[in-house]
Amino acid sequence: MSSTVRADAARSRERILAVAKGRDAAELRLNDIARDAGVGVGTVYRHFPNVRALVEALSVESLRRLNEAAEAATREADAVVALRRFLADALALQLSDSGLQAVLVDLERSDPIVHSECTAARAQVSAGFGAVLVRAQATGAVRADLSAAQLQRLVCGVEHAVRLGSPADQQLLLDILIAGIRA
């Protein structure tokens, strides 16, 4: 019986995530998600005690893809090309996942007990930002006084600027970011 209960719980969790995926993170309401997923509100709260936990769960795949982008950047022969490609990938992922920015930069609100998978993925992403940045700094092409955390916040700023403006601004603003971090 317990395996049936676990299978039902897994199906409910997947249904909840499927309903929530693609919705603006700022607009997520657990009661609405429960209704649209066809599950009880208690079921949603058992899986996701708050909206933050749901946003983290939704962002795990984006964090994995961001980590893959960092790994690909470390394999790129030219460190500056690698940094540019990585920042473009990071920006694109953040624009496609409305909750990713909060998951990346709002560390104080993160509860590793609520969502340890997200915490581990975020740690890998932070390390990836660091590895790509340090490599570009070692070539002398990027400011030595820039930290990985600052770079991450700069990408979030560009994301915010694109959301306020137009998707057509994405490339221009990324070019300006790259120009601004040059040594």
From TrEMBL:
Alphabetized InterPro entries for the sequence: Homeodomain-like_sf, HTH-type_TetR-like_transc_reg, HTH_TetR, Tet_transcr_reg_TetR-rel_C_sf, TetR_SbtR-like_C
Start-end of DNA-binding region: 29-48
Source species, domain of life: Bacteria
Pfam families, A to Z: TetR_C_43, TetR_N
Protein name: Helix-turn-helix transcriptional regulator
Keyword hit for Transmembrane: no
Ranges where the HTH tetR-type domain occurs: 6-66
Alphabetized GO MF terms: DNA-binding transcription factor activity; transcription cis-regulatory region binding
The keyword Iron-sulfur belongs to this UniProt entry's keyword annotation: no
UniProt keyword terms in alphabetical order: DNA-binding, Transcription, Transcription regulation
